[in-house]
Amino acid sequence: MVLAVVLLGGLFALPNIFDQDPSMEISAQRDAVIDQTTESRVQQALEKVGVRVKGIGQKQNGKLLVRFSSSEDQLKAIDLVAAELGENYTPALTLSPDLPDWLVGLGAEPMYLGLDLRGGIHVLIDVDMDAAIEQAAERYSGDIRTLLREKKLRYTRISREQDQVVVKFNNAEKRDQASDLIGNEFRSLNLESSDEADAFLVTVSLSPAEKQEVQRFALQQNITTLRNRVNALGIAEPLIQQQGVRRIVVQLPGAQDPAKLKEILGATATLEYRLADTEHSVEDAVNGRVPPGSNLYHERDGQPVLLKKRVIVTGNQIVDASSGLDQQTGQPAVFVSLDGVGAKRMRRMTNENVGKPMAVVFIENRTTTRMVDGKPVKVKKRVEEVISIATIREPFGRRFQTTGLDTTEEARDLALLLRAGALAAPIEIVEERTIGPSLGQDSIDQGFKSVVIGLVLVMIFMAVYYRVFGLVADMALVMNLVLIVAILSMLQATLTLPGIAGIVLTVGMAVDANVLIFQRIREELANGNSPQSSIQAGYEKAFSTIIDANITTLIAAVVLFSFGTGPIKGFAVTLAIGICTSMFTAIIGTRAVINLIYGRKRVKALAI
Amino acid sequence: MQILKDVHLDLMGKRSIALVFSAVLLLIAVGSIIARGLNLGIDFTGGTLVEVGYPQAVELPVVREALAKDGFDDAVIQHFGTSKDVLVRLAPREDIESAVLSDRAFSAMQGIDPQVDLRRVEFVGPQVGDELTEDGGLAMLYALIGILIYVGLRFEYRFAVGSVIALVHDVLITIGFFALFQVEFDLPVLAAVLAVIGYSLNDTIVVYDRIRENFRKIRKGDAVDVINTSVNQTLSRTLITSGTTLLVLVALFLFGGEIIHGFALALIVGVVIGTYSSIYVASSSVIFMGVSRADLMPVKKEDGTVDDMP
Questions:
Q1: Which H/E stretch holds residue A236?
Q2: What residues of A are in contact with residue B84 (Cβ under 8 Å)?
Q3: Would you state the pLDDT for residue B273?
């Protein structure tokens, strides 16, 4: 059995000694496909300029993998391929192990290196849930306004106060009617009636269940959006994951430009389509007399514009957006598709308002944390800008285009942000860890060096101190290392720098079990017992001690794992795996070898 | 080869000296923690840290000037490992978003030499830092409670209390060391402190195991004698295991790279203290609590290998 475990362990640890090729993964976007033609196109394009391709082939997931012999070739190739294949294909840099086919067939893979070892960017993003709920309340206030108008129930005022909507009436009867109506229409809302001096109020708030749903949705939508945006960056194995109830982790192995990532992640852009207010004077509004029902905005060149408060369509009703050229004018344009609700509203509005101007407001949310009197204070900045005012030429619904963008580049940027789907709630980066590739490689080298040096020192000590038994313990130690590597490879657990430290620590502690056993054997021998029975007794008596000692360490490892983030988890994982494997190798493994050496014959003395 | 053969040191007889020694260490540790505080890393305080590597050795004043020109007057700048590598700590700024602070600083440093290599950026928002501090404290607490329960079940409550006293002793002194010498205390160091808990306990359990066994085996002598014998019997193992662990930790400290320094240092301090405490603190606290043979006898463990499997 011991032999079987060792062989299996060796087999799965094997992929780690093969080199990793710098390579490129090409994936198809939208309806583009990767086939034989794509493959030959890439190959020819690269050969034309003399970039040597080490290997090319389609992976099981449909992506095209191109291997190179140097990372210089790899970097050169990515630009070439991007130019050759065009926008519908995304090439991404990656590393792939150069494994023989039979190992690949077995499903054996090398250890998965953490970002701190392979280099890359890790960011933790916080979703502003208060804002998400306020947005939901804002949406409801619009819906309630529409509902009351349709049913001809006159109200004096509808306003949103934080996460509540307050509707004012001038008599109690109307108020009660409205309350019933709203209650029937929106079952997920909590209603509360109250009286003020001369007004009758209904206070509408979201039920806890609805709030939870809004938050869940905000998080989910953000994850989807981030995934889309990140995919556009061309990173081979991006990880985008929920952490807790309001945080999102984004990990981009191999990415090297945190500034670019933050530009993409940090700005949350959305669009609002609003009708321009042509009935009132803009000048009056600039002088402070903004008519109720309208807001004052500015165009990019600073020109003031008066727009109706009512939003026709918001960014999260946008399904898709792409950039291109307007067929008639040749100007850069963004083509937008709306979802069902958005299309319906757009159709109704444009129907009634042909010939009137409609504006697109581009809204960017930025959140900064500043220190005020030693305490972090969040400052939210909302930048609103009218990016285009266009006359509604004809009624439209699901699909339409927006022009008025200065360059094709700007159109593309906007389309990218829009396509990603406007975000439901503002986000803020609360943690970033970027590791450059050179530091990662240094860490691997230094980690490897310290493992080897530590291992050799311990092995020498054991061999000198316990002679034959020490050599057996040394074998167990090496086997233990192989098993740790094998298990890490099999689980595809992430190996981090603290993880390597965990392995080093395990090397030091793994011999503990053997030290316990050997000390016991020595004691038994000193008490005048025969070699065979001393071995027997030594293993038996040390057993419970070893179990107790290791379980307590395991408790610490489990606690570490459950509270820790990234790198600390890596340490806990290797520590826990190391404890388990070391118990196996140090007790069962050494016993088997010792029996092999001393088992059959009558021995006079033990080399211990 | 044997280093310690048949030692019969009167270790427990000196327990009052050990008590004073421990008390002094603890006083210094707690005193440093209170008086000087921990030099917390940005993992806990929040902040921004940028590490860059220049192709050639670079003078710190040059870097300082380049950063000051771009408004980073209060940046803390130091060499990291070699004279080519520079580590910069940035304070939050009014006019720049925290998340893009590092990008600005990096471009400022690119001004000195465009070939500069961005090695590492760490930015931790203040709220994340606070959460980590809280989680770290909780983790330590959970680990201690888990261990208390396990040892209580496997041995006896006084042993559980004794082991926890030893653990608190080790953790406090290790953290005190970091406070006294103002070595940076970051997330890996916290992990190391938790690992110290595991390690120190490992040592303590081995000694306790022997005490339990000897209470049942040795019929003569009082509790102090029995405990003394047990500590003596396990002494050689305790020292060897600590020795091998220290060997690899020193290797890690010397060759593992700058990032892992604090981690290795915490473990080295922890292992040394843990070794001492498993000999003195854990055993003597059991004596102080007045454990006797009778306390361990009713638990019929003598025949039970079955019982030994938890």
A1: none
A2: none
A3: 94
A129-208 to CATH, choices 3.30.700, 3.30.465, 3.10.450, 3.30.1240:
3.30.1240
Cβ neighbours for A413, distance < 8 A, ≥ 6 positions apart: none
- Probe site for chain B from A126, A511, A555, A587 (most B CB atoms < 10 A): A555
Give me the interface pTM, i.e. the ipTM.
Answer: 0.83
Whether residues B123 and A429 touch (CB distance < 8 A) is answered with: yes
Q: What is the pLDDT of residue A304?
A: 86
CATH architecture, domain B12-40+128-308 = Up-down Bundle (1.20)
Under an 8 A CB cutoff, do A515 and B209 touch? no
**Cα-based torsion angle of the residue sequence A471, A476, A477, A483 in order, rounded to the nearest 10 degrees:** 160
Say what percent of chain B tops pLDDT 90: 18
A537 lies within 8 A of chain B by CB: no
Q: How far is CA A237 from the centre of its chain?
A: 10
Query: Roughly how many angstroms between the first and final C-alpha of chain B, as a whole number?
Result: 35
In the structure encoding, which two tokens stand for residue B107, read together?
């471009």
- Give B-chain residues touching A455 at CB under 8 angstroms: 248
C-alpha separations of A563 from A243, A277, B136 in Å: 12, 55, 8
Query: In angstroms, what CA-CA distances link B198 with A213, A343, B249?
Result: 42, 62, 15
- Judge whether A471 is closer than 8 Å to chain B, CB to CB: no
Interface contacts (A, B; CB < 8 Å): 258
Nearest to B45 by CA among B120, B132, B105, B141: B132
Chain B residue closest in CA terms to A432:
B123
B206 within 8 A of A545, measured Cβ to Cβ: yes
Give residue A371's pLDDT: 52
Pick A457's closest partner by Cβ from B142, B234, B248. B248
Span between the terminal Cα atoms of chain A, in Å: 26
Residue ranges covered by each domain of chain A: 20-94, 129-208, 267-429, 436-598
Encode pLDDT of A431-484 as tens digits.
888 888 778 888 888 888 888 998 999 999 999 998 889 999 999 999 999 999
**How close B25 gets to chain A, by Cα (Å)?**
25
Q: Which residues of A touch B146 (CB under 8 A)?
A: 555, 558-559
Mean pLDDT, residues A54-75? 78
Q: Please answer yes or no on whether A430 and B125 come within 8 Å at the CB atom.
A: yes
Q: For residue B96, give how far its alpha carbon lies from the nearest alpha carbon of chain A (Å).
A: 8
Q: Which residues of chain B have pLDDT under 50?
A: 299-310
At the fourth CATH level, the homologous superfamily of domain A436-598 is: Multidrug efflux transporter AcrB transmembrane domain (1.20.1640.10)
Residue B45, φ and ψ in degrees, nearest 5: -85, -20
CA B200 – CA B184 distance, rounded (Å): 22
pTM for the predicted model, two decimal places = 0.75
